[in-house]
Amino acid sequence: WVQEEAPDVLCLQETKCGVSAVPPEIRALPGLPHQFWASAEGRPGYSGVGLLAKTEPLNVTYGIGDPEHDADGRVVTAEFPSLFVVCAYVPNAGRGLVRLEPRLRFDAAFLEFLRRLDARKPVLLCGDLNVAHAEIDLCHPRANRANPGFTPQERQGFTRLLGAGFVDSFRHLYPEARGAFTFWTYLGGARARNVGWRLDYAVVSQRLLGSLCDCKIRSTVPGSDHCPITALLAV
Prior knowledge:
Elements: H1 2-5, E1 9-13, H2 24-27, E2 34-38, E3 49-53, E4 59-62, H3 67-70, E5 75-79, E6 84-89, H4 100-118, E7 123-128, H5 152-163, E8 166-168, H6 169-173, E9 200-205, E10 212-217, E11 229-233
Parallel strand pairs: 6-7
Antiparallel strand pairs: 1-3, 2-3, 4-5, 5-6, 7-9, 8-9, 10-11
Helix pairs in contact: 4-5
Keywords: Cytoplasm, DNA damage, DNA repair, DNA-binding, Endonuclease, Hydrolase, Lyase, Magnesium, Manganese, Metal-binding, Mitochondrion, Nuclease, Nucleus
Organism: Pteruthius melanotis
Cofactor: Mg(2+); Mn(2+)
């Protein structure tokens, strides 16, 4: 599927894979020779992201400059001539919201990181942001108000991101689209019934809107409990 799509940049989240364990078929993907991997320090099988690119970035950084979170391997940022591409896997608040407070601290630190980037050049943030922002972004909002990914605090964090000059590209283009989900639990045939959540986003700096061509949710692509999304920009 990746070879057919031939993306300029491929962002992967929750890889659960250290650099040395990246499968050879991924290493050998044609058209994506420049690969950058982050994984959790001392926690194999936890978190992790990867950013693969057709052309070599000008610069690549890991983390957000926050020691509490950077050991988890959640963010890789590649600088290209016209923009930054940020690949991110935002922490889950956890069953029973046991990790809600660390999650909220991550949100605050991550927003400051994105603001610093945006002051230098436009940003495209791609990733599993582990939040359904509005009721339209999940199948059963009323039943999930106290569940991770849909608490008022997490939703407010995403609202603050939008208020800081960033745009949810899919919702900007398709403000009324319903049933547009990117995650379905493996339980109960949820995907077949489209009982899902929109947790995966392409967020852009406001000044990139003139370059935004489309943002597609690729819900028919199998292989995970999440589906890919594609951001198309003319930059």
